[in-house]
Amino acid sequence: MIDIKNKHKQDFVLPVKSNASFAKSPASTVRTQGNHCFAAIYAFVKLEKLRIKTGLNHFAIKGQIYIEALKIAYDNLEKMSGTQNRLALV
């Protein structure tokens, strides 16, 4: 028998805490904590929409986003320095 409360916690609470940085709030005032909570839940909803659309888990999606961000940052660095692409990014 599946424990409904535990299943709910596995599917929603843990991904919010680990993937949306819900527990990592550096805020010290009530307003900034509220803003951080809203932003974390909003990020989780966006990740969940991508998970449903792509069929990948949250960690795979975050990995792909991170790799794309690194590629864009590297291209921008090359544009600023005026050098050619010496490393072929996969």
Number of helices in the DSSP assignment? 3
Helix-strand string? HHH
What is the CA–CA distance across the termini?
A: 45 Å
Any idea how many domains?
1
Oligomerization state of this entry?
A: single chain
Structural category: mainly alpha
Entry keywords:
90 residues; mainly alpha; single chain
Describe this structure in words.
The protein is built from three helices and no strands. It has one domain (4-81). It has 90 residues and is mainly alpha-helical.
List the helices and strands and how they pair.
Blueprint: H1 4-19, H2 30-54, H3 58-81
Question: In summary, what is this structure?
Answer:
The chain contains three helices and no strands.
